[in-house]
Write a structure and sequence with these properties.
With 285 residues, the protein is an alpha+beta fold. The chain has helices at residues 9-14, 69-75, 95-111, 116-130, 136-145, 149-156, 244-257, 265-276; strands spanning 19-23, 35-43, 53-57, 65-67, 165-166, 173-174, 181-185, 194-197, 204-210, 217-223, 226-227, 234-239. A four-stranded antiparallel beta sheet has the order 1-2-3-4. The chain is elongated and about 95 Å long.
Length: 285
């Protein structure tokens, strides 16, 4: 019967990506002191001998060498630039200890003063990125496409993907608390718009109507059967919206922005009820 794993699974997964420098003598049957670079590539919490951490070497990618935490702690590459990003206590935490540990580590790491070497490297990277010398998005996407564990581990320290929500306006996923913004155009039902021909004999002309969100007048080019919505102006450009209450506030602010508008309460409530929260009967006050 397999022995139950005693370490915290969440904490164990954060060790993935840790750079290693392992001497030849660590492998059974070898006695040399030559060190081999590698990294913790994955975690296997079902190992009956407690060797939960799967190491791969730079020379043999894909070949897993199981290590217990004592070996990980002894042979982690403390000279690597990302070494301080990993939580490496003397004893592997249990799930109960993990929460306290993470909180204290976040506090200490944010107040810790970076070394001169880190500052210098950071400035070089900032200049390289700001001048367009690298395409950060493309490079990160390429690594994610290759399932690079170090990249995944790094990005998860910045973005909590488990907290991602869907914006009710642009329908894109976003992580609350980040500086990402939503930008959407005005919308209008074609049945509520009017078509005006350029000339009596022309098939083309302009469609005009009112935005369902902000109440602004909108127009677009087209023919009597079709209009081009790409010509609609931007209706909202601001933080993503993930709750019905936030959406209601956005619509109120958009309508109040229109100078001289006097919208009836019924119009406002109909938009919120029908477009935003059709299943939430207690939403409209």
């Amino acid at each position: 019967m397999p022995v139950a794993c005693s370490i915290d699974p969440e904490w164990a997964s954060t060790i993935v990506g840790l750079r290693m420098k392992v001497p030849e003598r660590w492998w059974p049957g070898y006695k040399g002191n030559k060190c081999y670079g590698g990294w913790i590539a994955s975690v296997n919490l079902n190992d009956e001998e407690g060797r939960y951490f799967m190491m791969e070497t730079d020379e043999e990618p894909g070949a897993n060498y199981p290590m217990n935490y004592k070996a990980v702690l002894a042979h982690a590459d403390s000279t690597h630039i990302n070494y301080a990003d990993f939580n490496l206590p003397k004893q592997p935490p249990t799930a109960k200890k993990h929460k306290t540990r993470v909180t204290s580590r976040a506090t200490s790491s944010s107040s810790a003063r970076p070394s001169a070497a880190i500052k210098e490297e950071a400035e070089k990277l900032k200049k390289l990125i700001s001048c367009g010398g690298v395409d950060v998005i493309a490079d990160l996407s390429k690594r994610l496409d290759a399932d690079d564990s170090a990249t995944v581990n790094f990005l998860k320290t910045i973005y909590d993907v488990d907290e991602a929500k869907k914006c009710l306006l642009c329908e894109q996923n976003f992580v609350p608390g980040t500086k990402s913004k939503c930008s959407v155009q005005c919308i209008s039902d074609a049945d509520e718009m009017e078509f005006h021909k350029d000339t009596p004999s022309s098939c083309y002309g302009s469609w005009s109507g009112t935005c369902e969100r902000c109440g602004e007048g909108i127009c677009a080019r087209g023919n009597k059967d079709w209009c081009d919505p790409s010509g609609f102006p931007v209706c909202y450009n601001g933080p993503h919206v993930s709750t019905n209450e936030e959406m209601k506030l956005v619509i109120l602010s958009l309508q109040m922005r229109k100078e001289g508008s006097h919208f009836q309460d019924e119009f406002m409530d109909a938009i919120v009820r029908d477009k935003l929260a059709p299943d939430d009967r207690g939403f409209i006050e």
